[in-house]
């Protein structure tokens, strides 16, 4: 099966882009990948053109291969899940066409919302009997928490990258010193060896 990857930043969808649409060639699969931190709500809605004698499956999994959601022969539907750990997640749509058929590309539409965009604040407001202003304040509060979490994650990544950089610099320094010591030792051995050789040949005193 031919593999095609559509690597996109799902965070762009979070900031208000429209649904993604693409043509899925027969017997191929395309995936959307994104890194997400823990306890993030992800909700998606898909629409796949229906073609007689062909099918499209979808599967959502993390980098360890754990399946979060899966369904065969999809046409239109929704999915949602909450991340447990910081990881790389991917949503894949797989085209399957019998070998004796000449396949026709499917048109796939996918709308994914992450974090607070995936929450239905209208339903939350109705359940908690909140006024519209209170619902908006709740949304802004969740948005502020999400921004703080993003900054915390960015700071943690920066610290990890700095530690890695310092560790790499130290290793390069030690390796350079070791290499210089080896070269000096080799040069000294060569000089002594050549001196003994020329003395043995009585070319030098």
From TrEMBL:
Signal peptide: 1-19
Gene behind the chain: LOC114243856
Protein name (Swiss-Prot/TrEMBL): Transmembrane emp24 domain-containing protein bai
Membrane topology: Single-pass type I membrane protein
Organism: Bombyx mandarina (Wild silk moth)
Entries under InterPro entries matching the protein: Emp24-like, GOLD_dom
Family: Belongs to the EMP24/GP25L family.
Compartments it resides in: Membrane
Keywords for the protein's UniProt record, in alphabetical order: Developmental protein, Membrane, Signal, Transmembrane, Transmembrane helix
Every GOLD domain range: 29-114
One of the Pfam families matching this protein, by short name: EMP24_GP25L
Residues passing through the membrane, by range: 172-194
GO cellular component entries: membrane
Entry annotated with the keyword Cell division: no
């Amino acid at each position: 099966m031919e593999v095609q990857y559509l690597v996109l930043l799902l965070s762009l969808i979070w900031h208000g882009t429209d649904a993604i649409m693409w043509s899925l060639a027969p017997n191929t699969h395309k995936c959307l990948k994104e890194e997400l931190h823990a306890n993030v709500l992800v909700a998606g809605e898909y629409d796949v053109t229906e073609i007689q004698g062909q099918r499209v499956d979808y599967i959502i999994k993390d980098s360890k291969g754990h399946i979060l959601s899966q369904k065969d022969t999809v046409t239109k539907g929704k999915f949602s899940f909450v991340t447990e750990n910081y990881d790389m997640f991917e949503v894949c749509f797989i085209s399957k066409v019998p070998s004796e058929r000449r396949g026709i590309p499917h048109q796939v539409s996918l709308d994914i919302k992450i974090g607070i965009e995936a929450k239905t604040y209208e339903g939350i407001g109705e359940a908690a009997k909140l006024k519209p202003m209170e619902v908006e304040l709740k949304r802004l509060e969740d948005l502020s928490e999400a921004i703080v979490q993003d900054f915390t994650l960015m700071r943690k990544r920066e610290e990890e990258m700095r530690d890695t950089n310092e560790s790499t610099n130290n290793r390069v320094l030690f390796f350079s010193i070791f290499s210089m010591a080896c070269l000096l030792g080799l040069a000294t051995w060569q000089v002594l060896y050549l001196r003994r050789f020329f003395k043995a040949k009585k070319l030098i005193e």
